[in-house]
Amino acid sequence: xxxxxxxxxxxxxxxxxxxxxxxxxxxxxxxxxxxxxxxxxxxxxxxxxxxxxxxxxxxxxxxxxxxxxxxxxxxxxxxxxxxxxxxxxxxxxxxxxxxxxxxxxxxxxxx
Length: 111
Hints:
Blueprint: E1 2-4, E2 22-29, E3 32-33, E4 38-42, E5 53-57, E6 63-67, E7 72-79, E8 87-95, E9 100-106
Parallel strand pairs: 2-9
Antiparallel strand pairs: 1-5, 2-3, 2-6, 4-5, 4-7, 7-8
């Protein structure tokens, strides 16, 4: 997992890099797990900008976990398997202080 902190308006955001709370789930396509896919949890308007950004990768069963997710509104993206540097929005979440199970998420077809 990779996370970053970007200062804004001369203020630094301090984050706990790891541990609870967690966001987890399973990424599928056509009902089958998507193994070894990169996921990004970041800002709702653009994955390029913001104060919080975290990456993880699915395991061989499509399972993923983001650890140490800060409270707030975040959007989950996955890296398109065939189009380089294209991120596909999966869903937006409202993260509180507890773990969040997203269940099984269906990848969206992009052409």
